[in-house]
Amino acid sequence: MLVIVAPGQGAQVPGFLSPWLELPGMAETFSAWSEVTGLDLVRYGTTADADEIRDTAVAQPLLVSAGLATASALLAPHAAPGAPLPAPSSLVDATAGHSVGEFTAAALAGVLSPEDALALVAERGRGMADAAARTETGMTAVLGGRREDVLAAIEAAGLTPANDNGSGQIVAAGTTAQLAAFAENPPERARLRPLSVAGAFHTSHMAPAVERVREAARGLTPADPTVRLLSNADGAVVADGADYLDRLVSQISSPVRWDACTDTLADLGVTAFIELTPAGTLAGLAKRALRGIEILAVKTPDDLERAGALIKEHAGTASPAGQQEG
Q1: Which strand (E) or helix (H) includes residue 182?
Q2: Candidates 202, 253, 254, 314; catalytic one
Q3: Per the residue annotation, which of 65, 89, 99, 231 is the catalytic one?
């Protein structure tokens, strides 16, 4: 069983899009997607510096466009760039995204077209950037420590466990004052790592963005997914497109339970795990949480041949989309 996953905000690095633009038709595709998002995705993905692509309004559409481009090159190498993504069970058994990566997964599963996913995520990025500007907030990764102790310390500091990534990694989010106090009294045997993000994502601080994106989503007509599509809310396999779209909106101010997604993949019997560009973060978590499976981080087009081999070897071995074994 093969799963394709898409990373979330923070995975981007300067210039990561450059090798993908060398593929036939990709420059034209990104030019068209730039029109959809209102951003110069080519410049941001090639020559922009780290501060520029850290901007939430930029990072989110950039990440989703990169994931869609990777998926297109992998799953439909002979199709016209930017065409709807094929995702029959012979190619993909399941898909999931971390935070904004859920928009990539939604397009991969056929719930949204690439253009609708990009237009909606651009509105999400703008809405979350505006919400983050209202209060000085941030996020800190908590590495190690006993899970119970970490969650108790986060609650005591008035923070939110915004990302539960499993493998001993939980991200706390809240105001900078709360995070400073948390740093002075960290959980026992835990290390803290402040994250280079522009706000307290997936917390109540993002509530203003929820209504903004919900309004934008009203004009969309989602389709039911063609493959298993996992939700960050609880790790569930969601078979209804409208339900998944609702979850995309509400997830803006709700914690990401990547640990639950990983548990679902383990229960489903995943045997191969491919992370789309800019890859590495989720593959690293999978190496600790899903031992004994094939894992590939697709970072450049040089990785496509290996990814194709994994698809041929592992895909198409699961039961019909939306049905969870066991």
Answers
A1: helix 176-184
A2: 202
A3: 99
Print pLDDT tens along the chain (326 aa).
999 999 999 899 999 999 999 999 999 999 999 999 999 999 999 999 999 999 999 999 999 999 999 999 998 776 665 566 665 556 899 999 999 999 999 999 999 999 999 999 999 999 999 999 999 999 999 999 999 999 999 999 999 999 999 989 999 999 999 999 999 999 999 999 998 787 999 999 999 999 999 999 999 999 999 999 999 999 999 999 999 999 999 999 999 999 999 999 999 999 999 999 999 999 999 999 999 999 999 999 999 999 999 999 999 866 544 444 33
Q: Is 99 marked active-site?
A: yes
3-state secondary structure of 113: coil
Q: What residues make up the domain containing 174?
A: 137-194
Instruction: Count the residues in the chain.
Output: 326
CA angle 305, 307, 310 (to 5 degrees): 115
Q: What is the dihedral of CA 45, 49, 50, 52, to 10 degrees?
A: -80
Is residue 78 part of the annotated active site? The answer reads no
- Output DSSP code: residue 256: B
Q: For the chain, what is the largest distance between any 2 Cα atoms, rounded to a whole number of angstroms?
A: 55
In this structure, what CATH number is given to the domain that contains residue 153?
A: 3.30.70.250
User: Does residue 324 sit within a domain?
Assistant: no
In a domain, 26, yes or no: yes
87 and 29 in a single domain? The answer is yes
The CATH code of the domain that includes 285 is: 3.40.366.10
